[in-house]
Every structure is written in C-alpha cells, then in structure tokens.
Amino acid sequence: MQSMPEGAATVLDAGRVQDFCNRRWDEQLLPLLQAYIRVPAKSPAFDPDWESRGLLDRVVDDAAAWARRQPLPGLQVEVLRAPGRTPLIYFELPARGCDADDAVFFYGHLDKQPEFEGWRAGLGPWEPVYDGTRLYGRGGADDGYAIYAAITALQALHEQGCARPRCVGVIETCEESGSHDLPHYLEGLKPRIGQVGLVVCLDSGAGDYERLWLVSSLRGYCGGTLEVQVLEEGAHSGDAGGIVPSSFRVLRNVLDRLEDSATGRLLPPALHCDVPADRLAQTREAARILGEQAWKRFRWHCGEDGQPMLPVTTDPEQALLNRAWRPSLAVIGAEGLPPRQTAGNVVRPRTAFRLSLRLPPLVDSAKALADVQRVLEDAPPYRAGVRFVPDRGHATGWNAPTFAPWLEEALHAASRACFDGHGFASIGQGGTIPLMGLLGSAYPDAQFMACGVLGPHANAHGPNEFLHVPYARRLTACLAMTVSAHAQALIASHAGARPPSNRHA
Predict the structure, then answer these.
(1) What pTM value is reported for the model?
(2) Which residues contact 422 (CB under 8 A, 6 or more apart)?
(3) What confidence tens digit (pLDDT) does each residue in 273-309 have?
(4) CATH second-level architecture of 14-218+398-494?
(5) Span 147-177, pLDDT tens digits
(6) Which of 23, 153, 271, 365 has its CA at 20 to 30 Å from residue 263's CA atom?
(7) Per the omega criterion (within 30 degrees of 0), is the bond before 143 cis?
(8) Half-sphere exposure of 411 (CA within 13 A, CB side)
(9) Does domain 220-278+324-390 have CATH number 3.40.630.30?
(10) Do domains 14-218+398-494 and 220-278+324-390 have the same CATH topology?
C-alpha cells in the first residue's frame, strides 16, 4: 500500500475545515454564485435556442475556468462537447496517501429552470440579492453551488495535507430537461471514471437547516401533453353550447381516470409501490424531527379571514410519505385557453394540458408512462380527439443502499461537528435526479451521499428561490470530513484492520 505523504494528517481538524470553508464561501463562492445567477442559462427544455444563445456554454466555461485556477496539484478540468448536445464539465483529482481504486464521484448541474412568476418586490430570477443568510436568484441552490462546494471541500483536505481517494466529478447542463444527454457522456467517460466507491450528489434537499440531511430516496418522473380536440374551429357558445361538448370537460373527464380529484390519489395500480420497512422507520423519525414543518414549510394562501388553506394531510408522517413514496400529478401548463381579458363567448376547439407525474422510487418510469398513455387515450368520450404526447425524457426513481458502518459513523460525526452536536437525519425527496438510478445500476457496490441545500422555503423552480448560505457552508465542511473518512476506511480496509473511528479533532 502507498505510504502516507510526509506530514499527512490522519485525523482531520474539524475546526480548521469549517474555518477554511467559511472563508472560501465569503471570499470566493458568494461572488461567483452572484455572477452565475445573473446568467439566464435555462435548460434546453425551456430554451429551444440554447445552443445559439451560448448561455449554457458561458456558465460551464466560467465554472471550469475557476476550477482550473485552484491550487490543487494534479486537478484536471475538461469541458466536453458533442454536436447537438449540452456541454458537460468533467474533473479528476488523483488520490493522495490512498491507493485504493474506489473513486469519489461528485455530481451537480448548471442548467436552470425558467423564470416563473410571483417573485416578491425587490427580487427576481436573474438579479442576485443577498440578505446575509439567503442568496436569492434562480439556480444558486439548484444547482450552481455544487461544483464550487465540491472543489472547496477538496481544497480543505489539501490545506491540511490529509489523505483522500481519487476524486472525479460530472457537472451537466441538461438535468432540468431530464438529463437526456448525460448517458452519452457517462458511456464515454466510463473507462476514466473507473471503479466508484462513494457517490456524492449535491442536487437535493434538507428537512431543516439544523443538521446534515441525507436523501434516502428520490421519486421518478414522467409526463407529457394531454390534448383534447372537439371542433376544427371555435363556435358561438350560444349556438354550440349544449350540443358540442366542451373540450375542457372532456379533458377533465379523461383526467378523472388518472386522478381522484377529491383526494389527489392517482388511480392506476401501476403507479404505486410498497414502501420498504426501513424507509417507513426513517420517515417516522423525520416526521418526529420536523413535526408540522413537514407541511407548514410552504407559503400557503390565506383567505379573507386570515386562515391558511389546508394541505392534503396534516399528519407529518403521511405528508412525508406522500411527498417521497406516493405518485402525484401536477398540471404545469395549458394551451387553448385565451387570457380572461380577451376571452370571447366561444366554445373553444381544443384544450391541452402539460402533465407532470412524480413516481414512487421503485416504479419503472417507462412502464408507468405507457400505462398513463393507455388510460388517457382509450375509448375517448364522444369519440373526441384525445391524444397524449409523452415528454422526451422520463426517469425511474432511486432508493439508496444501506449505509456502510464507516459512512454512517462519518456522517454523524461530520454533522455533530458542524451542526452544534446534531447527528444527521435521512429523508425521502419528491424530486428526480436521473443520474442516481444510472449510477446505482452502474456501480451497485457504491455508497451514496445524496444531499443538498434545498431546505424549507428554498423554493427551487418557483419564485423567490434562495440558497441558505450558512447551511451551504456547513454542508461543504461535511463533504470534506466525509471524503476524509472514506480515505481512512479504504486505508484501514487495505491494511486488514477495522476502519478507525472518525472522531474529528
């Protein structure tokens, strides 16, 4: 086994790690993210002209240029491009004091969701605003911070001369469009990535900002456009009403096959799965920690009496299960509906809805999509023109493997060191990260540290999105400590000994 380099530390000084990460966030990362927020680098699904605009290329080149300037000996940073595909950053840092083959694989993305409406006065998607805790603007938390936090964590280890495994990273620009370009790049990078022992995904969320949160599962995704056509042209509502069925009513009737509108429960059995016993136990613990914040974390509409509307359920455990392990439907767009100010008394010829379905982690997305299409299109009412056009991308969810003892101990130690003595907690997330399923299949023996900064009110994809900077600082330090613990576990494993206790100095 390779010997430790002269002066290399075997025990990481947690205080020094936190001080280093705090300084880097204040001096470098905050200004970098403010500049990143100003670039409307929307994902290809929301900007058909992304290639000619060059905004994805711009944020990729900016991030890659910064990474190349960092004083990390041996760090290689490349921007990969292919005709018609979104660009991707690949970085690699050789091992230090640890000759095991298992690499740490970092993941993030730089593409963004569109603007959306409803930003509060003084805030906007493309103008960063920092109030001392929250950095507002599109993409800072989802997921522009990822590459900067990953490289900073590795710098914190280098600054103390600590051992580390070989580290690789993939930062894509197609995640918000379903990551349809990612498999192409991963296939080409496979020989260079090699064997992976730990995957660090920085594109998820947290239950609160008081401890390190690890994501134990992610829902899958499928969707498409449901269109109903009843006429070739609009007709006077006084003439056609009662004879020509409303396209909206037909569409509503068809949707009732998919969703119980009274409860929100999706009806096809193929969209459901059983919840594993360990995930039920973790959900109960997360519900105990979060209590009513499991549903109060959203900005609910209040009526004239000042009372907020009610959620689907006020039971914290059921709310968390609904969010992570049960399917849900959202109508995210519509066509064929004129603005109300210009709406004439016309029976409209067509109505189209864009549907987004979140699927439980163990449901196959391709099979679910086929079942949804069959349910919606079969036997259309009145023989109306009913058509469901699936989206280009869909993704099966992900259920994390059980933590290895060394990783569970390392995560608790890092969380306690950085979050005032609180150990880490696990939570299922309702979002989708296509890469996780891909990596889970490609590296079945790897451990996973899926985490992120999207805690209460962070509101990714919506208005007033923000990055909680104190949490991001602490998460960055936790990354460094966990990578260090992984190196120690590998060294001990090669020496035939039990991995040392990861008690940070």
Answers:
(1) 0.88
(2) 210, 211, 212, 415, 416
(3) 999 999 999 999 999 999 999 999 898 999 999 999 9
(4) 3-Layer(aba) Sandwich (3.40)
(5) 999 999 999 999 999 999 999 999 999 999 9
(6) 365
(7) yes
(8) 21
(9) no
(10) no
